[in-house]
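B., you asked whether I could sanity-check this one before it goes into the benchmark set. Here's the sequence:
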Amino acid sequence: MPKSTIDSVGRANFDEKKAYVPQEAKGQAFFDDGREIELLHFVYGHPSIEEIRGSPTNVLKAIDEFGRTKKYLMNVGDDKGRIVADLIAEVQPQVMVELGGYVGYSALLFGDAVRKAGGKRYYSLERNPEFAAVIMSLVDLAGLSDVVKVVVGSSAESIKRLHAQGILDHIDLMFLDHWKPAYTTDLKLCEHLKLVAPGTVLAADNVIKPGNPPYLEYVRSSVEKKRQADQSGQTNGDDVQASFGRNADMYKEREGEEKLSTEIRGNPNLVYESKLVNSFEPTGEPDGVEITRCVGVAG
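And here's what the prediction gave me:
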């Protein structure tokens, strides 16, 4: 991503009053160090707990308060979250899937938006069982358990299982915010299973910070280019994983090794229209959401 494109957003457009505390310095843990459980205690011990119960908006406000006054949380945040919430209102998905739930910020914000748009189910796929427990607790507190379903396990295995069980046969809208090397391989898996088809919309977080060049290249490529890559046997293996540097290493250190579904070739004939919407991390650092629409199938 050209620096000029990133700088065009300008931090001057960010409301500093709502900024989270900065992410920890390089080499220091910024998740899975106990802060997620601290968040639960903070929310349930909040002086306004009775106003928080049954209100997704107030649960989100409490999470943001923790992120601003206590410790950094790797949430999508208010600015980028509003982009996706507006997309939900437009698309009106019956079924939405998120890959990577962390502490449930996106599940609360987007699950509420799906319900308001008349949708039936929001699946939050989270690999870490402790994080999944936090999500479930906060979803229950917010009164969203009728819409939000938390699925514990690796994204690829969870997608395969939900499809094999007949629970998931089509995705209207998918939010990608998990292990960055898995964005492309999991999208190809969904293509292979015909979960992604014309009409499906994708929203991918963190395409500027930390960035995801392999994913952007794939969703922005022409059908011809994707066919050429497919015919050459190109896969998304170690070459993709190696491009993510310390973020992938930190994830591996905290979460353990995760196997990419490199054997899945996807469907290169799907036609995508994709664009970047510039925004901010909750800390105020420039980031963006890549919005991709599947608009057809090439013959």
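One thing to flag: Residues 171 and 195 are 5 Å apart (CA to CA). Otherwise nothing jumped out at me.
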